[in-house]
Amino acid sequence: MSQSPHHRFSKQEHASIRLVAGYGVAGDAHGGVTVQHRSRVRRDPNQPNLRQVHLVSGELHDELRARGFDVRPGQLGENITTRHLDLLGLTRATRLLIGPSAILEVTGLRNPCRQLDAFRPGLMAAVLERDAHNRLVRKAGIMAVVIADGEVRRGDPIVVQRPAADVEEPLTPV
Predict the structure, then answer these.
(1) Number of structural domains, the chain?
(2) Domain around 10
(3) What is the DSSP string of 72-134?
(4) For the segment 18-33, what is each residue's pLDDT rounded down to a tens digit?
(5) Sheet with 16-20, side-by-side order of all strands
(6) CATH number of the domain residue 114 falls in
(7) Helix (H), strand (E) at residue 153
(8) 0.90 cut: is pTM over it?
């Protein structure tokens, strides 16, 4: 669990974070009803914030460490680091029930940016790859909005509720 009140690349780890419906992570610089990411604010400060919460898989951290990158939870800017959950395999509008009451709704993929290379040279290329059909795979995590408030702690279970099959949409960058 990570958050930062400042617009920095990495976030500090905490034992828990508070998710606030319609806002994001309490005390996090990226929380808000409208966009908070600086590049998006410059384009249109009134667009909705579809990037209230950033999730990254712990398995990505493992993969990156195996490739020589020193990364730990929160250092890639994520708020929540998961384990044993195929984040990239989720679809848009999937709901994630975390802990006793928090609910997130998945909005899309995090689009990796050059800040990754500023943090660790070569990291951006390490989170991008091509699949068997030569399609770009962005492994830098997913983004979500908060639907229901709740305190979230390390180790809390995450229950996945997929949307109806006829409305499932693959994840695209947001």
Answers:
(1) 1
(2) 2-170
(3) -TTTTS-SEEESS--GGG-EET-EEEETTTEEEEEEEE----THHHHHSTTHHHHTEEE-TT-
(4) 999 999 999 999 999 9
(5) 24-25, 16-20, 150-153
(6) 2.40.33.20
(7) strand 150-153
(8) yes
